[in-house]
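re: that chain from earlier
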Amino acid sequence: MTQSHGDDVVPESSAGGRKPAHRDAVERESNLPTIAALRAFVLSAQYRNFSRAADELEITQSGVSRAVRSIEDATGALLFERTGHGLVLTEPGAL
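^ sequence. v structure.
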């Protein structure tokens, strides 16, 4: 059952209470990358190296790698080619 409040339609929860109209939008956005993950990506792209990005962020290299992987998982795109000589941005990563 839904209730109308002006232009917003607010679905009722199964417990009978009202669910905030913005709740669905917030739930859909929950897989967005964090600001920290985006900073890790930007610095990794700048330095072409997870370790240098980690030094700048004062976190571990694996933390930077996990942050970048979380963005890749959320977007479904590989952002870097990981080579023995550092990182190379892929086409999606360069956008």
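The two ends are 43 Å apart (CA to CA).
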